[in-house]
Design goal:
InterPro entries: AB_hydrolase_fold. It comes from Sulfurospirillum deleyianum (strain ATCC 51133 / DSM 6946 / 5175). This is Alpha/beta hydrolase. This protein has a single domain, classed as Rossmann fold, CATH 3.40.50.1820. It contains 6 helices and 5 strands; from the N terminus they run E-E-H-E-H-H-H-H-E-H-E.
Length: 170
């Protein structure tokens, strides 16, 4: 299995242990890492059976003002921004995120905020026989869980988990 980490995260695949498919033919990613996993799966020439996207970073429903405010806040005080971000990732749990923390960059933040999920690429993966799974927490404080669910339903098996947030823990 190949796993891609989220913005400000490292080695967090342990958080998703109950859901991960341990196979050489599985690609998975969390949040920002879901974008990277998707791009990797689309361009990879090797066999991929399953693409697992955990709380995929999805901001297509946000306006330019929201995105600009996020980047300005990060630029002004990246430490305060990332501390708040990590708390929002854990919400509604009080799970200790520190063991998985890695300082993110403004370039990564900008990329995830402005990324557009390509429906044609999702369809192409389906046509290649890749099983796409999307896991979303009902109480996610980072992304709009209902919007993300509605977007991915035509392309994936979507697991909408009750009473959990971005890291899928309560």
């Amino acid at each position: 299995m190949r796993f891609f980490s989220g913005f400000c995260f490292k080695n967090e695949e342990a958080l998703f242990e109950p859901y991960l498919i341990k196979s050489a033919f599985c690609v998975a990613g969390f949040s920002y890492g879901a974008i990277q996993a998707f791009e990797y799966a689309f361009t990879c020439k090797e066999r991929i059976d399953t693409l697992q996207l955990f709380s995929p970073a999805f901001f297509g429903d946000k306006n330019a003002k929201f995105k600009k405010l996020q980047t300005l806040s990060f630029t002004k005080n990246s430490d305060a921004y990332t501390q708040n971000f990590m708390q929002n990732c854990a919400y509604p749990s009080t799970f200790d995120m520190q063991p998985f923390f890695k300082k993110g960059s403004i370039e990564e933040l900008s990329e995830l905020l402005h990324y557009t999920w390509d429906e044609a690429h999702l369809r192409s993966l389906q046509e290649r026989g890749v099983n796409i799974e999307v896991y979303i927490g009902e109480d996610d404080a980072i992304i709009n869980a209902l919007h993300v669910k509605d977007f991915f339903i035509p392309f994936a098996t979507v697991y909408y988990l009750k009473k959990v947030g971005h890291i899928l823990k309560n």
